[in-house]
Specification:
By secondary structure, the chain is an all-alpha fold. The chain is built from 15 helices and no strands. The protein has a single domain, classed as Up-down Bundle (Growth Hormone, Chain: A), CATH 1.20.1250.
Length: about 400
Amino acid sequence: MRKLTTLPSNVQQYLLITGNYWAFTLTDGALRMLVILYFHGLGYKPLDIALLFVFYEAFGVITNLIGGWLGAHIGLNRIMNAGLFLQIIALSMLLIPETQLTVLWVMAAQALSGIAKDLNKMSAKSAIRLLVSADAQDTLFRWVAVLTGSKNTLKGAGFFLGGALLTALGFHAAIVGLAFALFLVWIISLVFLKKELGKSKAKPKFTDILSKSNAINTLSATRMFLFGSRDIWFVVALPVYLSSTFNWDHWHIGGYLAAWVIGYGIVQSCAPYIIGKTTSNVPDGKDAFIWALALCAVPACIALVLKYNWQIENALLIGLLVYGIFFAINSSLHSYLIVSYADEDNVSLDVGFYYMANAMGRLIGTTLSGWLFQTYGLAVCLWTSAGFVLLATLLSLGLPKHSATQTI
């Protein structure tokens, strides 16, 4: 603790924001897996399970737009703490008797959780931009990569935790434990997070929530299709497929998806070293295009394996690992580019707009995941995923090709 107090203020705040983000993500991943596995066990169909998360993603779209504007006015610290508090309420809503856990009630709880998640994420990503000087783009890339990658590693741990808690304690006891742990983190964050972090000097108008930057608009559209491509087959279709086709139990599904997301997060954290951008030679639009193109082929190859019925289980699991590596690098690149493109005085507005597109992609992907899988099967989910990545690849051609250290 004494060593922490001797660190520079910006490093202390970075560690606090990262720890806050970690704790939130752990509970959010656990909650998602709890809901998917619990309601699948009750006999809900894939589309019904997908609908449980529609409000989670839909409200994320609105939250990112409005949250960025609010962050500029009242400060990112208050936005982050509000996200933690709303997640505690969302968890508490699921503590009613099982007979009253209707689809509409769970959708409402997930809507609140979606608002909480995007308030927390938007404020965390925006705050990093303010803690690093504009001429230290390589440091910014590394800090963003660590924040993003470690978050997803914890999300994977949350998947495993959710499956384990459901098996060991049951649904309600698991929810109580998660809510109590997050309450402790909220108290710490209220006390120690810097009070004026992220307030804009010139208060933006509400109409300023829409980005006026071509680079940010293009990157946001790319992000929408990128994350839509993942969730089309990963969110609902894959867990249900593993359960119904291979008879995997909760432990196996939660454990495998946890391992996948943990590995995905590790790759994100290492992205600056994997693509060789660890000095002032930071990524640009060309890197985004190359890595999106590489990702495009993976879901198509997995779909072909399913079509020809060749070692389906092994091919699916190996293909998912390859997909995770390429997707993680793409995601890390995008997370750096938006923070780099964002205007310093209105960083929360630009980052909020970008993550609005991210939430829109997740909403589209989650909805299609349940409907396409239930109607056509996993192969069609994968072909649609490949199509979305192709669109993201083409959009990447419009991103600036010069170094992100230059004025954009």
